[in-house]
Amino acid sequence: MRLTNKHFLKDMSVMFGRSMRHIFRSMDTIITVCITPIAMMLLFVYVFGGAIKTNTENYINYLLPGIMLMAIGSGIAYVSYRLFMDKERGIFERFNSMPIARSTVLWGHVLTSVISNGISVVVIILVALLMGFRSSAGILEWIAVFGILGIFTFALTWIAIIAGLSAKTPDGAGAFSYPIIFLPFISSAFVPTDTMPSIVRAFAENQPVTPIVEAIRNLLAKQSVENDIWIALAWCIGIIVVSYIFAMKVYKNKFNNA
């Protein structure tokens, strides 16, 4: 094993610090990520909310989990963009010429994505509270909610890395996120799936967003999560494994078996 691998954690902390500095120097990134989900939340609560039947007293409580997933889907597009810009500027070649564990360049972006998207989610929760969101969840339930959101972000970020390393243009780097942002619309995030046509319902109930949304919604309401949490975790872990393998393969092919 190479000597540099013994300093993996130290190298990763340096790369993480570098990526976080970029975030804090341009907080408009986090603000931009929040704008569309918050606008959607305002639209659905104050315009469409009265016409949507969800068997809940407060529609914002039903809606919030899906809005948080939309924010994460939007936020990971910036990971692809930053990776693409690093690639175009020759940053990877520069780092690969140094005595560091080379995969830490990617891990720095991954950890930054989890933290920055976590900040965006907190901002959205604060806005939701102003709109009337209330939760009976305790500390353990909130920890579980943020744990699921963190794992979901972690999974999608590795997909973002594949897109960022493979893209030919800045727009192409972020375009992959559009289907991910759209997925909550074909799930139980906005309306119950039993109101959908049979074909659409079958898709909605068997894609990753629905069990994640249901698990988070039940945790926030302090209700039984049943099998939803395990299905949600299985989806996330499966995505992590597959996307990590492909991301590392693309990275090594791009940078001479780095």
Automatic annotation (TrEMBL):
Protein keywords: Cell membrane, Membrane, Transmembrane, Transmembrane helix, Transport
**ABC transmembrane type-2 domain location, by residue?**
28-254
Q: Where is the protein found, in the record's own terms?
A: Cell membrane; Membrane
| Membrane topology, from the record | Multi-pass membrane protein
> Is this entry keyworded Membrane?
yes
Organism domain of life = Bacteria
The reply on keyword Cell cycle is no
Family, according to the entry, reads as follows: Belongs to the ABC-2 integral membrane protein family.
What is the recorded name of this protein? Transport permease protein
Q: What is the lineage of its organism?
A: Bacteria, Bacillati, Bacillota, Clostridia, Eubacteriales
